[in-house]
Design goal:
The protein is an alpha+beta fold and about 600 residues long. Strands 2, 3, 4, 5, 9, 19 and 20 form a seven-stranded mixed β-sheet that branches. Strands 11-10-24-23-22 form a five-stranded antiparallel β-sheet, sandwiched between helices. Strands 1-8 form a two-stranded antiparallel ribbon. Helix 1 crosses helix 2. The chain is elongated, with a radius of gyration of 35 Å.
Length: about 600
């Protein structure tokens, strides 16, 4: 009997001690930081699944609401590795290879990634992606197949948004592209407002838990000043012109001189934006220029400087007229040669044109006459006007990657700054500068500065944003005057003189029924050993109708082969563009507009 009671008490004590041990262990687990961390991670992974919500990038539209850049839903197809086993692996590999068109070996490699869960690690491999950017049709096929084939149970998918460009290459250089962030153009400049921060939360795996899905953040949308129809037509004309002239590249910009709005901007090459960033950049190759590797600029209109040649003469004429150094009727005897600062300068044809008024000097694009105009203006005043036209500064257009080039001195190659009394500004420099040689500018700089001549002397800030739409509200861009380099009367006089010049020389830029002002520019191309022989940059600038300019056009064809002269290769491009513009912009011929104005 005693032995039985002893056993009974021993068993009771053992049970009590065991219970105490369990209680102590439970308290230890609940209070020990290590066990607490394990419990938290395992518990969260079992009951909650982390879910990231990618911010929806804002759309980009043209001025009429046509979509230029948006987002499409695409899918990543893969397998849940913890559900793959020897019984279903081969069937999964065969099915996904057949569905996606990917090689069996590639799919096999993705499916056979080892699955080694570790509760102490938050990011261990669970899902292996087999195909990215899959279509909705593929996802529908998988869903249907899984209903009849249990072996495909591990196959699943996740959706995401992909940046898409409905028109592929249209406006590629001004839009830029998106690949985790915006690059170049509008996508790069407005990256911070098109995108916003991502959000994340934990989604309960308990089907009885009802959770409110957080609102997915949306970036702002940008409405551009670009007209899609004008852009498409200009690209078509430019591409054909490059092909016909054998040019190495081409650039065209169209601006509203009254507001600074960019209506179209086309250059070459233009990449298909609906491909990977690596393939996009591969379409802008590195070229070997005089033994140096030079990267092709993504957008030559704002990223490449060049010597513009005679289109630059409009600044010399404007400075001489505005300063009172000349009048349109001032006479000049052209001898065909001038010596200035130790340099001997000839006319483009090495000819002497005799007595000329200032319109004749511009009509025949006489270098010698333009050097004389700059001399009459004086060195100090001439450079004051070039500074007022902002020639050596960026335009600060709202696009990523703009460049500029300062005035440089032949004797001391350092940037000038803005002091017109700087000793490095000497008379010899005004010789080449007066007709656009020895000065380097971008096309966007040229059209912006020249636009002051088409807008009563007011230079507007060039811009490509018309409005921003965010949170249901629209905010419009307000045009800005950045400089008034000349008087309104001077701008009108220069415009009239250049219109007369086109008409008198029967230029290929002349458009029947519309008075246009314009100037050609044929420039030699500088190299490290001097100017190249037999190759040029051909440019043309024009605006109109001159009584009420509604557009200004800048054209640059690089190294044309059929002719080195701008009057032959660039002037006809201007004419074709204007003939299309007046239709697309609904601008009646001059006589109809004047009749309509007289009856109002």
């Amino acid at each position: 009997m005693k032995q039985g009671m002893i056993r009974f008490y021993l068993v009771g004590i053992a049970i009590i001690l065991f219970s105490i041990t369990i209680v102590v262990r439970m308290v230890q687990i609940q209070t020990d930081p290590v066990f607490s961390e394990i419990s938290k991670k395992v518990g969260n992974q079992a009951m909650y699944k982390p879910k990231e919500f990618e911010a929806v990038r804002g759309n980009i539209y043209d001025r009429w609401g046509n979509l230029l850049a948006g987002n499409n839903e695409v899918f990543e197809i893969g397998v849940n590795l913890n559900q793959v086993n020897q019984n279903n692996k081969e069937e999964i590999i065969s099915y996904l290879s057949s569905l996606t068109g990917l090689s069996r070996d590639y799919v096999k490699g993705r499916v056979e990634i080892s699955y080694q869960p570790d509760p102490l690690k938050e990011n261990y491999a669970v899902f292996s992606t087999v195909a990215r950017n899959a279509s909705e049709k593929m996802v529908e096929d998988i869903a249907a197949a899984k209903e009849t084939n249990n072996a495909l149970y591990p196959v699943s998918w996740t959706g995401r948004l992909q940046r898409t460009y409905p028109d592929n290459r249209l406006a590629a250089n001004l839009l830029g592209f998106y690949s985790s962030q915006g690059f170049f153009g509008v996508e790069g400049f407005y990256d911070n407002i098109l995108s916003t921060v991502e959000s994340s939360t934990y989604i309960s795996m308990n089907p009885y838990d009802v959770m409110e899905i957080p609102e997915i953040p949306h970036g702002a949308s940008v409405i551009l000043t670009i007209d899609r129809e004008i852009q498409a037509r200009i690209e078509e004309i430019l591409d054909r012109s490059i092909n016909d002239s054998g040019s190495a590249s081409g650039t065209v910009i169209i601006m509203d001189p009254e507001t600074g709005e960019i209506l179209a901007m086309a250059t070459t090459p233009r990449a298909d934006l609906n491909q990977s960033s690596e393939k996009i950049l591969a379409e802008y190759p590195t070229l070997n220029v005089e033994g140096y590797d030079v990267q092709t600029p993504y957008n030559r209109a704002i990223m490449q400087t060049y010597e513009p040649g005679s289109v630059f003469k409009v600044f010399t004429l404007a400075a001489a007229l505005d300063s009172g150094a000349i009048t349109p009727e001032t006479e000049f005897i052209d001898t065909g040669v001038v010596n200035i600062g130790g340099m001997t300068i000839y006319n483009w044809d090495y000819g002497a044109w005799g007595p000329q008024d200032m319109t004749g000097c511009m009509q025949h694009s006489l270098n010698v006459c333009l050097v004389w105009m700059a001399q009459e203006t004086t060195v100090k005043t001439f450079y004051e006007y070039l500074t007022a036209f902002n020639i050596d500064r960026k335009t600060n257009i709202d696009m990523d990657g703009e460049t500029s080039y300062p005035f440089l001195s032949p004797s001391n190659p350092t940037p000038f700054g803005s002091d017109p009394n700087a000793p490095r500004w000497y008379e010899g420099m005004i010789g080449p500068h007066s007709f656009g040689q020895g000065v380097s500018v971008t096309p966007i700089r040229m059209i912006t500065s020249i636009s002051a001549l088409a807008n009563d002397g007011r230079m507007m800030a060039p811009h490509i944003q018309k409005a921003v739409v965010q949170d249901g509200r629209i905010r419009y861009y307000n045009p800005k005057i950045v400089s008034t380099p000349i008087k309104p009367e001077t701008a009108q006089t220069v415009t009239e003189m250049l219109a007369n010049s086109l008409e008198l020389e029967s230029s290929d830029a002349y458009v029947e029924g519309y008075r246009m002002a314009g100037k050609t520019g044929t420039a030699e191309i500088a190299s490290r050993t001097g100017y190249l022989k037999g190759v040029t940059n051909a440019s043309f600038v024009g605006w109109g109708p001159i009584d009420d300019p509604q557009f200004i056009i800048y054209i640059w064809l690089e190294k044309p082969k059929t002719s080195i002269w701008s009057s032959v290769v660039a002037a006809p491009v201007f004419k074709e563009i204007v003939e299309n513009l007046v239709i697309l912009m609904d601008i009646p011929p001059d006589h109809i507009r004047l009749e309509m104005a007289s009856t109002q």
